[in-house]
Amino acid sequence: MDEVNIRIAVADDHTLFRDGLRALFDSVPDVTLVGTAATGDEALELAVTVHPDVLLMDIRMPGMNGLAATRRVRALAPEVAVVMLTMVDDDESVAAALREGACGYVLKDADQEEMLRVVRAAARGELLFGAGVARYARRLLESGSPARPPFPQLSERERAVLDLLAADYDTARIAAALHLSPKTVRNYLTVIPRRIGAPDRAAAVDLARRAGLGRGGNRPTWQG
Question: Are strands 128-129 and 104-107 parallel, antiparallel or unpaired?
């Protein structure tokens, strides 16, 4: 990503921490800080108005917390990659972040190199965790359970779109089935392959079918 400028926003209720990240991003040529927020509501507003490539989101903030804000961001601005910031490195927090659609999770005491590595990976659409939580993420992703849906990095709506795509629905049929506009569906179809590590839509369909999607089993019906 050295040749590409990554537009990043930071949501954290600690001014000193935000200032530290600002100084870090100002020191590298490929990252531009485009906004900051101190609450989950402000983070959501940033996501839907500024559309950063990556949003660093503190998991604990006043009002709407980072997990709830991530869920809303994934629904309203699916092109924004959310990376969770936290001091907590337990299985439950990592699992919750994955369920809400975060594509990365990094401890707030990570060094600068690690923070930049996670940010750049998120901008490429990759799922990456900081070293401090990698062992938890690996255990969660590899142990699995039949009850957990595939592709935890996707939001429920993204998973529904992928499910219908894997069932050979075209854009118009997906839009009708999920009560979305065709433009919104096209946006999802652009974002989803990158988020699951597929080079293109056809590869995403192949991965989805291998994971059991496209069979019509559990498709939510979305009202708007």
Answer: parallel
